[in-house]
Design goal:
With 444 residues, this protein is α+β, with helices and mostly antiparallel strands. It has seven helices and 13 strands. A hairpin with a 2-residue loop joins β7 and β8 (387-397).
């Protein structure tokens, strides 16, 4: 019994330290796991913050470049205006010189004529000049001469006055054009100063983006992935609409054929019994079965008229927003001259507007699709015959699927990104069936 107690006491002495050590080891492992998880969370947050910062920088760069393009365009327009003003000033000044020469000639002719008549009248008055003639005919001629001279003199005086009035107006025009020239120069200088400032901002953002390297590539890759998914979704919707339109057209054609056959049967006279013994003629094949299937969207007459009207208004169609705007990304493929990774393919145009702006229908049409898309919030597609306009990145929708809309009717509120200083960008597309068109060639 004593031996058993001794062994039990020894066991307790050995087991207690082991259990304590295991407990401490478990706590240490748990603390390490928690620390590791905190580091992972911190790293993920840093990556997310860096990605968000890169997105903001890219959007900021797009806006700056749009502003630079706008200022460059304004400067070019001012240069054209200045050239036109200078040309007009030269023309007016040449006209003033010609007018001054004309006045000088008129004045000189008038003075010589006065001197001549004074010499002929030899300081006598008009009556004495007439009655001093040697004959009646001479007196009559002198009288007519004096009348003609008086009429000519009045005309000369009026002509000089008219030329002086013209010169005065031309001199006023010169002053106005010089003032306009000075205003244009001042505006040009302001535009150039702003342009220099914007280019410094651009350089700063570009330098920041160049440091991001992998983050920039990741953001661009994600943007391209989202753009491809949007393209795929739109193409599937358009293809489905084409299929439904083709099916509708086939059914209409079949119904028309059956109606025509029924009408012919009613119009045919009843055949004699002997005719019943003749072999029957096989029925003609359906036109829809023999006709080659048409490609593209099969339009109704109303849609065909709408499509033609849309096409004839190219360049005069409403812009998709009524507020002030900047096109921050143009249509097609673009590559930044300094950021070698920044090369994107844009199916439409990206329009930056003030927060709270609504997108509007650019033309009469019918809402054919409304759907949510990753990275683009809500998308609305409006059909105008076989033309389509697409409004992307909406937060609130003002229309419903299948609804007929008129030009200038609100489509929906454009999404403002709270993580990017409420930057509000509408992506807008124009398509002819599945062909992507440059919206800037269609809208005014």
């Amino acid at each position: 019994m004593l031996r058993f107690l001794f062994i039990s006491l020894l066991s307790l002495l050995f087991i207690t330290p082991c259990a304590t050590a295991q407990k401490r080891t478990a706590q240490s492992i748990k603390q390490q796991q928690q620390e590791t998880q905190r580091e992972i969370n911190a790293t993920n947050k840093k990556i997310q913050d860096n990605t968000a910062k890169t997105k903001r920088s890219l959007n900021q760069l797009n806006l700056i470049e749009a502003e630079i393009n706008s200022h460059e365009k304004t400067i070019n327009e001012i240069n054209k205006d200045l050239a036109a003003i200078n040309k007009r000033l030269d023309a007016i000044q040449d006209s003033i010189k010609d007018g001054e020469k004309r006045i000088a000639t008129l004045t000189d002719n008038y003075a010589r004529a006065i001197r001549s008549i004074q010499a002929q009248s030899s300081s006598f008055d008009r009556l004495l000049f007439i009655f001093s003639a040697s004959s009646f005919n001479q007196a009559f001629r002198r009288m007519r001469y004096l009348q003609q001279f008086s009429s000519w003199k009045d005309k000369q005086i009026q002509e000089v006055k008219l030329q002086q009035e013209i010169l005065e107006k031309q001199r006023e025009s010169v002053n106005e054009f010089r003032k306009l020239h000075a205003d244009k120069l001042a505006k040009q200088n302001n535009e150039r100063m702003t342009l220099v400032k914007k280019r410094k901002e651009q350089s700063k953002v570009v330098s920041s983006l160049k440091k991001e390297g992998k983050a920039l590539q990741k953001v661009l890759a994600e943007k391209q992935r989202q753009a491809r998914k949007l393209d795929d979704a739109l193409n599937k919707l358009i293809a489905e609409e084409e299929r439904k339109a083709a099916e509708r057209a086939r059914k209409e054609a079949e119904a028309k054929r059956l109606a025509e056959e029924k009408k012919k049967q009613k119009e045919q006279p009843s055949q004699s019994k002997t005719d019943d013994t003749k072999p029957s003629t096989p029925p003609a094949k359906s036109e829809t079965a023999t006709t080659t299937k048409k490609s593209g969207y099969q339009m109704t007459d109303a849609e065909r008229n709408l499509s033609g009207t849309f096409e004839s208004n190219k360049g005069r169609i409403l812009f998709p927003v009524s507020s002030e705007y900047k096109i921050v990304r143009p249509f097609g493929r673009s590559k930044h001259p300094e950021l070698k990774y920044v090369q994107t393919e844009n199916s439409g145009i990206d329009i930056e507007v003030p927060a709270g702006t609504n997108a509007r229908a650019v033309f009469d049409g019918k809402v054919s699709a409304i759907f949510a898309q990753d990275g683009f919030n809500t998308v609305v597609m409006v059909r105008h015959g076989n033309y389509l306009t697409i409004y992307v990145n909406l937060s609130e929708i003002s229309v419903s699927n299948g609804q007929t809309v008129k030009a200038n009717e609100p489509i929906g509120k454009i999404f403002s990104d709270p993580e990017d200083d409420n930057r509000t960008i509408l992506h807008f597309e124009v398509r002819h069936e599945r062909e992507k068109l440059n919206p800037q060639e269609w809208v005014k």
